[in-house]
Design a protein that fits this description.
InterPro entries: Dev_Immune_Receptor, Leu-rich_rpt, Leu-rich_rpt_4, LRR_dom_sf. Pfam families: LRR_4 (PF12799), LRR_8 (PF13855). Keywords: Leucine-rich repeat, Repeat, Signal. By secondary structure, the protein is an alpha/beta fold. Helices cover 35% and strands 17% of the residues. The strands form five sheets. Strands 2-3-5-6-8-10-11-12-13-15-17 form an eleven-stranded mixed sheet, with no helix packed on it. The chain has a two-stranded parallel ribbon with strand order 1-4. It has a two-stranded parallel ribbon with strand order 7-9. α5 packs antiparallel against α6. Bound molecules: 2-acetamido-2-deoxy-beta-D-glucopyranose (3 copies). The site of one 2-acetamido-2-deoxy-beta-D-glucopyranose (NAG) has 3 residues, from loops.
Length: 427
C-alpha cells in the first residue's frame, strides 16, 4: 500500500518534470552585479531566477518568490523566446527586469518597469504597455536584431536608450526621439547608419552623450547636431568619414568636450585642419592612439584624400535651393520698389499740375493787377519778378525730383548690396 503511494508520488514528480504546467520556479533574493548607464559596476538586491529553460511551453511555469512584492527581477543562465507572461502576472510591480542573454525574440515592457536590461538577445519586436503613460527610464537593447523602433517613440520618461549593435536598424531620423525630452544618453553605435538625418523641430535639451561610432558615416556637418545644445560627448570613431564641416562649433555646441574621430578615412590634409580647429577649441578628438601615419595621433592617409563627391554634391544642392530663395525674396522686394516708384510718379504729376495751375493763377492775377495805362512802368520788371517766382518753384520742384531719384537710386543700390551679400553668404 505504502509503496503504491510512493510510486504515485514518483509518477507526479515525473509528470512535473516532463510537463512544465506544474513547474514552480522560485527566485533567490540576493546581491546582483550589473552595470549602470555610465558603465559603473553596481550591486543591488534582486530576486534572481536561474536555469529557466522554456521554448513554446513558456506560458506554463509558475514564477514565485518568498515575497511577490520584489520589484527587481533577474534571470541568469536562462532561455525563453518571450519573458514568461506568468512572471508579469505574479509580480505585478516589477520596476527593474534583467533578462540579458536569454534568447528572447519578442519583448514586452510592462507599464511600471523603469529599467529594462534586455541586451544580447534575438529581439526583433518590442511592445511597451501603456503607450505614453509608461515609466521607462532606461532601456538597454544592445546586440539584438531590431529593425524598427516605431514602438519606442512614445517614452516621455526615458533618460537612457541603448540600441548599440542592432546593425539592421539603418538610418534613424533623430525626430524619432522627439518625445524623449529627458534623454541624456543615446547610443546608436553600429546600427547601420550611413548618414545623419535630423528633422527634429524641438531641441533635445538634456542630451549629453551621443554615440554614433562604428557606422558608415562618410561626412558630417556640425549644424546637423544643432538640436542638442547640451551635447558634451560625441562618438564618431570607426566610421568612413573623410569630411567634417566644423565651424562655428562653439556656437552650435557650446558644451562640447569631446568629438572622437579615430579610425576613419581621413586624408591627412583635411584632418590637420579639423583636428587643429578642435584642439584649439579644447575638444578631445581621440580614444586610441595611431602608430602609423597620423595627425595628432589620429590615423590618416596622404595618398587617399578620398575622392568622394557625395558631400560636395549635397552641399551644392543645398546652396542652390538657398539661392533660389534669395532670388524669390529679391523679386518680391523689386515689385515693392516698382510700386513705390509708381506712387511717387503719380504724386509728382499732381505736384506739377498744382504748380502749373498756381503759375497760371499768378499770371492771371498779375495781368489783372497791371494798371491799364501806365507808360512809365517798366514792362520787364513784372516779368522778372514772375521769373524769379518761377525760378523759385522750379528749383523746389527740381529738388523734389532729385530727392525722389535719390530714393530710387539708394533703394536700387541697397537691393544690389543685398544681392552681393547674399552671394557672399551662399559662397
Ligand atoms: C509594435 O508593437 C506591437 C504591439 O503593441 C507588436 O505587435 C509589434 O510587433 C511591435 N513592432 C515592433 C517592430 O516592435
Ligand atoms: C499613443 O499616444 C500617442 C500620443 O501620445 C498617440 O498619437 C498614439 O496614437 C497612441 N498609440 C496608441 C497605440 O494608442
Ligand atoms: C495741390 O494744391 C492743393 C491746394 O491748392 C493742395 O491741397 C494739395 O495738397 C496739392 N497737391 C500736392 C500733391 O501737393
Amino acid at each position: 500500500m505504502k509503496s503504491t503511494v510512493i510510486f504515485a508520488l514518483f509518477v507526479v514528480a515525473i509528470a512535473a518534470v516532463g510537463q512544465v504546467a506544474s513547474d514552480v520556479v522560485i527566485c533567490n533574493y540576493e546581491k546582483f552585479d550589473l552595470y549602470d548607464a555610465m558603465y559603473k559596476k553596481r550591486q543591488d538586491d534582486f530576486c534572481v531566477f536561474q536555469n529557466v529553460f522554456m521554448s513554446t511551453d513558456v506560458r506554463y511555469g509558475d514564477f514565485m518568490a518568498s515575497s511577490l512584492d520584489y520589484q527587481k527581477i533577474a534571470f541568469t543562465n536562462s532561455r525563453f523566446p518571450i519573458v514568461p507572461p506568468s512572471l508579469y502576472r505574479n509580480f505585478d510591480d516589477i520596476r527593474e527586469l534583467y533578462v540579458r542573454r536569454c534568447n528572447i525574440e519578442t519583448l514586452r515592457v510592462t507599464r511600471l518597469v523603469e529599467k529594462m536590461y534586455a541586451g544580447s538577445n534575438q529581439i526583433t519586436s518590442v511592445s511597451i504597455d501603456g503607450n505614453g503613460s509608461n515609466n521607462l527610464k532606461e532601456l538597454y537593447l544592445e546586440s539584438n536584431m531590431i529593425k524598427d523602433i516605431a514602438n519606442l517613440t512614445n517614452l516621455p520618461n526615458l533618460q537612457v536608450l541603448v540600441l548599440e549593435n542592432n546593425p539592421k536598424l539603418g538610418n534613424t531620423d533623430f525626430a524619432m526621439f522627439s518625445r524623449m525630452t529627458k534623454l541624456w544618453k543615446l547610443d546608436l553605435e553600429n546600427t547601420g547608419m550611413t548618414k545623419i538625418i535630423n528633422t527634429l523641430r524641438l531641441d533635445l535639451t538634456e542630451l549629453k552623450r551621443l554615440d554614433l561610432s562604428n557606422n558608415q558615416l562618410t561626412y558630417i556637418d556640425m549644424h546637423q547636431f544643432h538640436s542638442f545644445p547640451k551635447l558634451e560627448n560625441l562618438w564618431l570613431s570607426g566610421n568612413k568619414m573623410y569630411f567634417m564641416e566644423m565651424e562655428p562649433i562653439r556656437a552650435i555646441l557650446p558644451e562640447i568636450r569631446s568629438i572622437v574621430i579615430d579610425d576613419n578615412y581621413w586624408g591627412c590634409q583635411h584632418l590637420a585642419i579639423i583636428s587643429k580647429y578642435m584642439l584649439d577649441n579644447g575638444i578631445i578628438i581621440r580614444q586610441g592612439e595611431c602608430k602609423s601615419r597620423n595627425i595628432h595621433k589620429v590615423c590618416c592617409s596622404d595618398t587617399t584624400d578620398l575622392v568622394d563627391n557625395r558631400y560636395l554634391i549635397e552641399m551644392k544642392i543645398r546652396s542652390e535651393s538657398k539661392l533660389e530663395e534669395s532670388v524669390k525674396t529679391l523679386e518680391r522686394d523689386n515689385l515693392a520698389l516698382l510700386d513705390t516708384v509708381e506712387e511717387m510718379r503719380v504724386q509728382l504729376n499732381s505736384l506739377i499740375l498744382n504748380y502749373t495751375a498756381k503759375m497760371e493763377e499768378m499770371r492771371q492775377t498779375a495781368i489783372a493787377a497791371r494798371p491799364v495805362a501806365d507808360p512809365v512802368e517798366d514792362p520787364d520788371s513784372l516779368e522778372s519778378a514772375e521769373a524769379e517766382d518761377y525760378a523759385y518753384y522750379e528749383s523746389e520742384e527740381r529738388h523734389k525730383v532729385v530727392e525722389a531719384e535719390a530714393i530710387e537710386v539708394t533703394t536700387e543700390k541697397s537691393s544690389a548690396e543685398d544681392v552681393s551679400s547674399e552671394q557672399n553668404r551662399v559662397e
